[in-house]
């Protein structure tokens, strides 16, 4: 059902604590701004302190009086995630909203996180998995249940979980690895919803995607060394996003809807309503068959628990 939903329709979030990963720019910043403008206390997180400071300064201009802080959190590092979660648990007894937004796209060459995971799989999926597992007690301490919003992508539609080469050691292709990581994000959101129902946790797991939004994600690695085919794919993506994409503020609406709207359903997936879900108003997004496959979900869950040393079941 298409809704002409805007941030003004979101409920007041006064007294609620929200955390957004990768909030120093793009969709993460816009989501943090939306939450702050509705009165939430927002923790913007990121891996670059200078960008964090700049984002806070910008937020104060965009939403004067906003209650916001910046904290270092590198979601590609299990150590950073554990340290961050431990510190947060010492400061608050509940977390109302967690938005797993931080992500990287199309790393030109196969790169690894410091834990030895392929960069996109580690940053876009294993990191959010571990963070959610570590913050679950705080989210479940919210009387009406905390919300976990996972940012997936249209790329999930053509993604495949390659279980016998999850870390792309045998064969690496930048956008293939991205598609896998984003399908894994959608599976994370849907399986977390099922685990939540099974265990009776007070938790709400919802997924969202922004369609095509004009952010730094496509342009940030444009000038890095890469093969002709990858470079053409990236240039094509940049132009497609420029010509047919929407603003970051619009792209963030499905994410903000998932984070705040009372009508957002547990286990729901929201995106833009226009052709191909590339732009438009907030609506229910299409869930590909691979994301609904329980065998894939259970297997991925076990792998993620083993690799991250955290438990979400
Ligand atoms: N833009 C789109 O059209 C689109 C479409 C589908 C899905 N998405 C998804 O939307 C999310 C946000 O992307 P965006 O378009 O807003 O891109 P963006 O402008 O590049 O922003 C990404 C954010 O994530 C942060 N980040 C990257 N790696 C990180 C790490 N290891 N730890 C902490 N923060 C990290 C970045 O920080 P730095 O500046 O320090 O790198 C930045 O703040 C991603 O999950 C992406 O897959 C975007």
Provide a quick synopsis of the model.
It is built from ten helices and eight strands.
What's the helix count?
Answer: 10
Number of domains: 1
Determine the mean pLDDT: 95
Morphology call: globular
Please tell me how large the radius of gyration is: 18 Å
Q: What molecules are bound to this protein?
A: NADP nicotinamide-adenine-dinucleotide phosphate
**Cα distance spanning the termini:** 32 Å
CATH architecture: 3-Layer(aba) Sandwich
Percent range for β-strand residues: 5-15%
- The CATH homology group name: NAD(P)-binding Rossmann-like Domain
Give the number of DSSP strands. 8
Examine the coordinates and then state which fold CATH places here, giving the name of the CATH topology.
Rossmann fold
Biggest β-sheet description: 8 strands, mixed
Q: Regions with pLDDT < 50 over 5+ consecutive residues?
A: none
CATH class term:
Alpha Beta
Broad structural category:
alpha/beta
Your description of this structure?
This protein has 313 residues and is α/β, with parallel strands linked by helices. The chain has one domain: 3-Layer(aba) Sandwich (Rossmann fold). The chain is built from ten helices and eight strands. It has an eight-stranded mixed β-sheet, sandwiched between helices. β2, α2 and β3 form a beta-alpha-beta unit. The longest helix has 26 residues. It is globular and about 50 Å long. InterPro entries: NAD(P)-bd_dom_sf (IPR036291), SDR_fam (IPR002347). GO terms for molecular function: oxidoreductase activity. It comes from Komagataeibacter intermedius AF2. This is Oxidoreductase.
């Amino acid at each position: 059902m298409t809704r002409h939903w805007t941030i003004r329709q979101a409920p007041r979030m006064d007294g609620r604590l929200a955390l957004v990963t990768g909030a120093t720019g793009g969709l993460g910043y816009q989501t943090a701004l939306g939450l702050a403008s509705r009165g939430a206390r927002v923790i913007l997180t990121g891996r670059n302190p200078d960008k964090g400071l700049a984002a806070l300064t910008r937020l104060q201009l965009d939403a004067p009086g906003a209650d916001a802080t910046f904290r270092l959190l590198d979601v590609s590092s299990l150590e950073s995630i554990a340290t961050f979660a431990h510190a947060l648990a010492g400061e608050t007894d509940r977390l109302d909203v967690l938005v797993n937004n931080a992500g990287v796209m199309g790393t030109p060459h196969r790169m690894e996180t410091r834990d030895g995971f392929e960069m996109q799989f580690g940053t876009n999926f294993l990191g959010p998995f571990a963070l959610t597992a570590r913050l679950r007690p705080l989210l479940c301490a919210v009387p009406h249940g905390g919300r976990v919003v996972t940012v997936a992508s249209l790329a999930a539609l053509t993604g495949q979980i390659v279980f016998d080469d999850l870390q792309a050691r045998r064969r690496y292709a930048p956008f293939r690895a991205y598609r896998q990581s984003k399908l894994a994000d959608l599976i994370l959101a849907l399986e977390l919803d099922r685990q939540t129902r099974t265990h009776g946790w007070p938790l709400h797991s919802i997924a969202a995607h922004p369609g095509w939004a004009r952010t730094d994600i496509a342009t940030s690695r444009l000038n890095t060394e890469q093969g002709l085919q990858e470079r053409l794919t990236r240039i094509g993506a940049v132009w497609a996003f420029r010509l047919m994409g929407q603003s970051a503020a619009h792209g963030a609406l499905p994410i903000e809807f998932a984070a705040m709207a009372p009508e957002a359903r547990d286990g729901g997936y929201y995106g833009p309503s226009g052709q191909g879900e590339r732009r438009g108003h907030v609506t229910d997004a299409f869930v590909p068959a691979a994301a609904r496959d329980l065998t894939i979900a259970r297997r991925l869950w076990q792998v993620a628990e083993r690799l991250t040393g955290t438990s979400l079941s």
